[in-house]
Recover the amino acids of this structure.
């Protein structure tokens, strides 16, 4: 332990700014992936609750496949396969591949979250809107979605926390983020213990405020319904 | 050569190695699950203890482990611990890393399960003359386990998928063999799709099971 403190005293000046810069990469990656995942998730959720069984099955298969496969496998497929089979137009940078891979899986997770939010609403909401002469699309847009959004905030927040941590896997396709930088620093300094503990601390400092926010939202929802 | 010719041609070879990896995947997942179940219960009991110190420790433990990526924890255990004189084999590091990571999630599942049982259940059991241990064992736990079964199965699915990470510390599981096969044959699409299929063959039945458990739980409540 005393040695670890010495290591930090000697190196923190070099490591801190580098890791802080890498945290920006992690946050950027998380944010972009989150936004893409939210769009995919909403679309898939709407397909998932469509009245037609065959359309519904497209969404169900997408959800099951994306949720049942490790993120690492999806990332490898998105990043390594297109260049190898000659699809040059689909050959992505590591950052773009990381966004795609995480967003595909995230879309499936969020689709289920959105669906359960919509289905949790009382059927009377939809019936009343339709009875007032709103079209199904307007009912969804103005009546169901705004109410569902409130209920799904905590699980969406939980997903965001998971996503933030999952970006670390993108180091394995060399996407510019914290874990990649930590790996480089660990091998150049020969101090893996100190470097990886510091990296873990940085992740914690990013995710913990989020998890407090989620708990606050859950608390409010539990009280006010 | 088109996709299917290659696939049919190479299928036995690819599968022989990937399935060998799958055995390791299941081994690591099972080992980590057992470790997580045991440590998780301990942490849950500490978290619910009356001592501020113990429950504070359990709080920091769960928050920190849930707030950092499993990959970072794995790297600390595999690459970092040798710095302090603890050298682990890849499989040991994988099981310990994922097991400790999982214990934080399981402790929360345990806690939620036990707290969801109404106090009146305990009180009724006491007033009928049951001992504290008896009422825990025969009244509270059977109900709590029913509550906890779906989230524990869900956790197992996540754990199974997380084992893909341990390929980076050279545990010979599915993704480790997949990467080697790709370097050897350059058939990345075939290999990774087969790897995905093997994971799905394990995770989809489990997620069906969760859906079934949740249906019966709702019916039972």
């Amino acid at each position: 332990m005393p040695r670890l403190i010495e290591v930090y005293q000697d190196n923190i000046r070099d490591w801190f700014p580098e890791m802080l810069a890498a945290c920006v990469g992690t946050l950027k990656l998380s944010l972009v992936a989150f936004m893409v995942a939210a769009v995919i998730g909403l679309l898939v959720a709407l397909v998932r609750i469509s009245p037609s069984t065959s359309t519904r099955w497209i969404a169900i298969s997408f959800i099951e496949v994306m949720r049942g496969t490790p993120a690492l496998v999806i990332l490898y497929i998105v990043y390594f396969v297109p260049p190898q089979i000659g699809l040059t137009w689909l050959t992505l940078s590591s950052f773009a591949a990381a966004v795609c891979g995480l967003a595909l899986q995230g879309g499936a997770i969020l689709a289920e979250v959105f669906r359960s939010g919509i289905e949790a609403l009382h059927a009377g909401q939809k019936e009343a809107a339709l009875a007032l002469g709103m079209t199904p699309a307007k009912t969804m847009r103005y009546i169901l979605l705004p109410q569902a959004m409130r209920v799904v905030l905590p699980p969406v927040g939980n997903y965001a926390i998971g996503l933030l941590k999952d970006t670390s896997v993108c180091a394995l396709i060399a996407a510019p983020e914290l874990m990649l930088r930590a790996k480089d620093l660990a091998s150049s300094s020969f101090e893996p213990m100190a470097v990886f503990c510091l990296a873990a601390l940085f992740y914690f400092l990013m995710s913990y405020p989020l998890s407090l926010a989620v708990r606050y939202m859950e608390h409010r929802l539990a009280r006010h319904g | 050569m088109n996709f299917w010719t290659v696939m049919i041609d190479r299928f036995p070879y690819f599968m022989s190695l990937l399935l060998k990896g799958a055995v390791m995947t299941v081994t690591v997942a099972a080992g980590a699950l057992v470790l997580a179940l045991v440590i998780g219960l301990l942490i849950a009991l500490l978290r619910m203890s009356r001592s501020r110190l113990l429950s504070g420790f359990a709080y920091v433990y769960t928050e920190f482990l849930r707030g950092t990526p499993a990959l970072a924890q794995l790297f600390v255990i595999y690459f970092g611990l040798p710095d302090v004189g603890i050298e682990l084999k890849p499989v040991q590091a994988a099981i310990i890393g994922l097991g400790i990571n999982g214990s934080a999630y399981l402790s929360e599942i345990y806690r939620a399960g036990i707290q969801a049982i109404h106090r009146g259940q305990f009180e009724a059991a006491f007033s009928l003359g049951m001992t504290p241990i008896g009422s825990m064992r025969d009244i509270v736990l059977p109900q709590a386990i029913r509550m906890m079964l779906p989230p524990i199965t869900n956790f197992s699915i996540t754990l199974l998928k997380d084992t893909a990470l341990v390929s980076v510390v050279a545990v010979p599981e599915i993704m480790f063999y997949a990467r080697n096969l790709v370097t050897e044959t350059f058939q990345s699409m075939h290999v990774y799709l087969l790897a995905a299929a093997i994971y799905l063959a394990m995770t989809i039945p489990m997620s069906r099971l969760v859906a079934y458990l949740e249906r019966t739980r709702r019916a039972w409540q």
